[in-house]
Every structure is written in C-alpha cells, then in structure tokens.
C-alpha cells in the first residue's frame, strides 16, 4: 500500500503565508470554485494544486492534488478581472499580504492574465489542505517573462 503524501499547512503571519503561496503557485481552478461565506467570515478556494515539493530533478511525471485553501476573519472580498459565476479557468500565481492597520490588511490572490482577488482581513489566518491522493500530470508549469503570460500546464 502506497503512503499518501498530503500537505496540511497553517499560516498566521507573512512568513507562513509565503510558504502557502509557494505550495499553491500554478494551482488551477474554476472561477466558480471561489466561495465567500460572509456570515462565517470565511473564504474558500477549491483547486488542483501542482506538487512543487515533488517536482525537483528530471521526471517524466509530475503530480497534482485536489486541495482546499481557506481564509478566516475575512471582512470583504473584491475581484478584479474575475467573473466568479463563470467556469473560467484561473491560474493562481501567488498569495500576498498587504498590511493596513496591523494585524489587519488585505490578502491578494494574484492570477495569471491580470486577475486579482483581494480579501480584506482582520489578520492572517489561512489553511491549505490536500483533499485526497495525487494524480500524475506530464507537464511542469513554465512561465514566460512576458506580462500577462500564463502557465503552460493546465
């Protein structure tokens, strides 16, 4: 029986958030997988996460995992160049924190093609969890230096 390697991370500060951001780089998701629950002050993202932690060296097959990224203490959500009611595929590039009145600030989810989602938060409180076993993907995401370029891996 093969062991299932799954990621479970928690971020409570900018340093922790940088680790989560590295793990979700090049995750793909549908815009309709972005869910805001204002009464719970929670924002959730279901995604297919590329397993960068296993992508070192020469390999023919890489891995993706179904994963959930959740943010708590969310006060408001603003989208730029995203229609959350569509099945448009988004490529997540990074998650960054912009402090305003510490510990409050904004969490920016930055997507390829100029799309951004801004979460106004009381503080950083994020979780990333893989939801099941990995599956193979033959392509490793690659980035062009051209503005607006997208990862080659879908």
Outline of the structure:
The chain has 154 residues and is mainly beta. Helices cover 7% and strands 46% of the residues. It has one helix at 14-24, and strands spanning 8-11, 27-30, 34-37, 42-50, 62-72, 74-80, 89-99, 105-111, 116-121, 126-130, 135-137.
For the structure shown, list the relevant keywords:
1 helix; 154 residues; 11 strands; 5-stranded antiparallel sheet; mainly beta; globular
Describe the model.
The structure is a single chain. By secondary structure, the protein is mainly β. The protein contains one helix and eleven strands, in the order E-H-E-E-E-E-E-E-E-E-E-E. It has one helix spanning 14-24; strands at 8-11, 27-30, 34-37, 42-50, 62-72, 74-80, 89-99, 105-111, 116-121, 126-130, 135-137. The strands form two sheets. Strands 1, 3, 4, 5, 10 and 11 form a six-stranded antiparallel beta sheet that branches. A five-stranded antiparallel beta sheet has the order 2-7-8-9-6. It is globular. The relative contact order is 0.26.
Describe the sheet with the most strands.
6 strands, antiparallel
Gross morphology? globular
- List segments where confidence is low: pLDDT < 50 over at least 5 consecutive residues: 145-154
Helix content: under 10%
Question: N- to C-terminal separation?
Answer: 29 Å
Number of strands: 11
Rg, rounded, reads 15 Å
How much of the polypeptide forms β-strand, as a percent range?
A: over 45%
Helix/strand/pairing class, anyone? mainly beta
Q: Helices and strands, in N-to-C order?
A: EHEEEEEEEEEE
Average pLDDT works out at 88
Number of helices: 1
